[in-house]
Amino acid sequence: MVTTTAVRRGPRSGPDRHRTRDDILVAARRQFAELGYERATLRVIAAEAGVTPRLISHYFTSKQRLFVEALEIPFDVSVMFGGSSDLDPEQAGRHVATVVVGVLESERGRQTMIGVVRAAASEPEAAKLLRGVLLERLIGPIAAVLRVPDPELRAGLMASQVVGLVVTRYVVGLEPVAHCGPDRLVSILAPVFQHYLTADLEASDAPLSA
Amino acid sequence: MVTTTAVRRGPRSGPDRHRTRDDILVAARRQFAELGYERATLRVIAAEAGVTPRLISHYFTSKQRLFVEALEIPFDVSVMFGGSSDLDPEQAGRHVATVVVGVLESERGRQTMIGVVRAAASEPEAAKLLRGVLLERLIGPIAAVLRVPDPELRAGLMASQVVGLVVTRYVVGLEPVAHCGPDRLVSILAPVFQHYLTADLEASDAPLSA
Description:
Two copies of one chain form a homodimer. The first copy, chain A, is mainly alpha-helical. The first copy, chain A, has helices spanning about 15-40, 40-50, 55-60, 65-70, 75-80, 90-105, 105-120, 125-145, 150-170, 180-200. At the A-B interface, α6, α7, α8, α9 and α10 of A face α6, α7, α8, α9 and α10 of B.
């Protein structure tokens, strides 16, 4: 049997350059998700991507930098808020819940989020890197879209529920949350996101509108 | 300078037996919280407790067993639901939010929960152990108290928000969630817990009552 796998030894040029870089990112995401930040060494990631560790250093300079680049938060804020202006504010919670559950139910989105949460929960250095990524790529853009007081706090509260869902449903597999159907989950989460998005967070626990 | 620290070499009898066992549990909680399940070795825990690793094996038989025993979920379900019968159902969400935030703001409760979440998020074996502990000590008792459909799902949803809060507020330190005052946090979370506790989870995203 002939195997066609070969280790690529040097940087490429042209279109191949992007493919190699993407291969490394895909391998990094998978290894960070599986092993966590510390145990996913450049050597392991290089082996999975079929390149040398030196090539990873060439493209990304350091493991920290590779982690930040690989940490592609899978939520597209412009999709989440449906172009922002044409989204009915009273439907925002349901819309966000639909997008969030949809991303988490896709293999890639789930894998990315598991990697993000695992790294953040277990390793202080990864948590610090993640904090910066979340603020820059998620909290900031969401805050810019929301026309309500305390947009950063609202974005952070939504993030807390999403993170908790990732841990209980996908990492721990806590039943029956783990096997709750996606549509039902959207309906359950919609009023919670609506609350975090639009409720008067200064008021005491007044009835929430969905 | 004379040091008074001495390593205790053998099992004790009488009241000291309990003290030694408790010392080991306290050390285990601290080390699991700080290092995670895998890196917190019996040797490290023994050193912190001032005993021999052999003594830990004597009391707890294995690291798995020590982890399960040390995993004292800091939420007392009877406190959480205020004796269950005399708690106004419409105030249940606020009451649970008050208890949850109170526990997380105490050093011991926070440390325990960080340990629990870290271990579960990063290590499959710990996640499996935790799933059993959560079902037996938290989800089960809560489900027994709730006189609503789907009590396990409700308990699991509440757990998901608590876990997410632990990760974002205490582990990652995501601002401004990390510095939101406890009273404000209780008010923000109260309607969410109320929703998870009492809302019609089959219905679509109808307005939540707090």
